Amino acid sequence: MSKIKLAVFDMAGTTVRDEREVEKCFFEAIQATNLSISTEKINSMMGWSKILVFETIWREELGEDHPEYSAKVKASYDFFCNTLEAHYNTHGAQPYDGVLDVFEFCRSQGIKIALTTGFYRKVTDIILAKLGWDKGLDGSYMSLINTPENIINCSIASSDVKNGRPAPEMIQLAMAKCLIDDPKSVINLGDTPSDLQSAASAGVLYSVGSLYGTHTEAELASYKFDQLINQPKEMIEIIRRLND
Q1: CB 96 within 8 A of CB 229
Q2: CATH 3.30.300.30: does it fit domain 6-17+93-243?
């Protein structure tokens, strides 16, 4: 019997191809709403809840007590959301090579598959639909029974929890929905520092960082993780090893 009961995967930059379009949408919103921020600063916040990114930027720019703070946050966030939704509606989404092989391996081992993301629910749904990964999920975005139709067992967006990454709440909600009590039966894969931080806070058995997404080894090196990988299919051997 598999020791791993739940595999939690980030979306953009981990399972879903990221050609820096999220970063580009951030910069379009930043420029349109007269903010000034470096590429490095934006990259350091990838994986966060997107509203939290703009709250943080405007807090540093104006201060949270500034009378225009809330309006500025809303204007930037709304522009970003509209741009991001238009992108995925127009261009769709594609998985990284090997991701579906990893999913199929997990299914063959009786391991449930959960997707977590810093995206809010609306854009998450657009991406899932473009990929066909929403099939078989119920109204709460879950399916505990594997069928020929469903690809994943659970989808968690940052807007589904009070605190997105780097807090552990999305992993914890995925566990609850998939009826998993022990974090030491969970493996997590993500491409950002906040993915690694949330996995560490959740106390998962094994935390894996993706080097084919938005961050380099140097950018992830100072965070807690168990292993870094260069392609998704490496997850199959990791899970096999952990289950021996």
Answers
A1: no
A2: no
